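Teaching assistant here, posting this on the class forum so everyone can see the example we discussed in section. The complex has two components, and the goal was to see what a joint structure prediction looks like when all of them are supplied at once.
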Amino acid sequence: MVDFIQNCLDGIMLGSSYALLAIGFTLIFGVMRRLNLSYGPSIMVGAFVGTLVYLEFKANAVAIAAATVVGAVIVGIYVERLCFRAIRRGAAVASMVSSFVIWMQLEEIVTVVFPDRTYFFPPMVTADPIDLGPFFFKVENIVMFAVAAVMTVLLHWLLQYTRFGLALRAVSENPRAALFMGINVGAVMFLAFVIASAFGGVAAYLIVSADGQITPLFGLWATFKGLIAMMLGGMGSIPGAILGGLLLGVVEAQSIWYLGTEYRDLSAYFLLFLFLVFRPGGLMGQLAVERELAATRRV
Amino acid sequence: MDDIYLITILSNIGMISFIALSAYLLLVVGEISFGQQAFFAVSAYGSGIATAMWGWPIWLGLLWGALVAGAAALVVAIPTVRLRGLYFSVATLAFAEMVRLIFEIFTYQVEIDGELVGPDGSDGFRDIRAIYDSNVSAFEYMLIIYGLLAVVLIGFLILERSRLGAIFRMIGEDPMLTEMQGLNVTKYKILAVVMAGIVAGIGGALYAHLATYVEPKIFNVMLGVHALAYGLIGGLGTAFGPLIGVAIDIGLLESIRAISGYRMIVFGGLVAVLLIVRPRGLLDEAAMHWLRGRWRGLIRAEN
């Protein structure tokens, strides 16, 4: 039982980084209705910008984190302009494939600039794990969890209590109607992309600094973890993204403990497959799916 | 030496064309699959087991691989085909990753001539030697690949002129409208997924025997997404589209050695720009319509 609870705690800590990745994903998908496969690679580039700042200037943690976020946002803007803004509406598949080829491009740029496969990434804090009764916590995981919580609250405030948040929700609900209300849809989409990239940058910094190293493969990893967490929680739902991320983390932690490392991803994908077949809306998005289905039936 | 290099590249183009065609078929019915590599993998293992372990002749092994892939596709299609859009895409992704991860732990070996043969988890499956044992040269094998590709391609061209092809395109345009014509969309989609699985399976079986060695990590999601991209680069208007995509990526860029190392930087940028101008690829439906019109005009002028 102690093991089980410890695994759950570990899973929640791990899951909070997945949640951050999924929030960025779901923001972009919710507003654009298009899948950005370059999401992971663009924050990977951000993390390499952070590495560069560290290698060149021996900068401190705050500067590295800032460089990571700025890098992720700049690359995010590049992706938005090239793969989303420039491709006409209705060509969602073209956007997705375009974001995929840009992913390949980003990965190769990184391997050209950083020829060694793996680079050291300075940890955020160096402290011993904290014991609490029979359970223990790693400090960097607690920081990760805390940052994820703070950023979620911030995002909630932004979406629910500001004019921009209202505009964003309107665009996400119905872009055409939003346009008629005088909302600058293009600008809202752009800003949503920037915010999502910033979230991704923060997530990238937290994950990579907890790992202590960075490789170009981080892009692939981040894209697919974010995608799974988003789908588990329900597409386009922020609370869903958080719950989905946490669920993914807990499932992974439990399967590592009870089944072995090689079952970690297998059980995650199995769970995802079951969810998609039996509850495609995920934990939180079910209503939207049912609404759509009801509409189809009516027709 | 150069000849071998050329044959290798051409064989690769041929084999990857199968998986590109399989992704293309699903794009035609309006579905995006991130998981065609699963059928490629299932068939590579299935046909390898048949020839290397059960001692089947190579043609039977290829057939078996394609059938196993088709059966796997049926198993995925039944629960997932009602899902739409991204849900279907991610379901295929989840399935394909499950297949890959199962092969990472799948061990099934028998002793043949004092040596253990068979898939061995993440160490892969060595010694699928059927084509070397039966003295098929690399050139002859390339001819086999292109012979099968021609058969599949002719099948696609016939399909596109048939009622079934029209139904597939109609589903891609608007499934609800198709349903209202009294057509069972679910049934046709299952058929499309199974056909796509078989096509990918042929490629996988050919791959296993040429490489003689398969390991699970080859069949990762990158293979599937590349397959998807080829159709969109070459164009969704004709089955030649995906082949053009493969030829551009593997053939053209592999041969320009000046940009090796920067290949994806150039190629990625070019494709991104191409997709802005032509979001459904070089030979899209409109281009094919125009080309067919010109073709008919030429024939009329001859008579």
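For the discussion questions: The two ends of chain B are 48 Å apart (CA to CA). Residues 2-220 of chain B form one domain. Think about how each of these relates to the inputs above.
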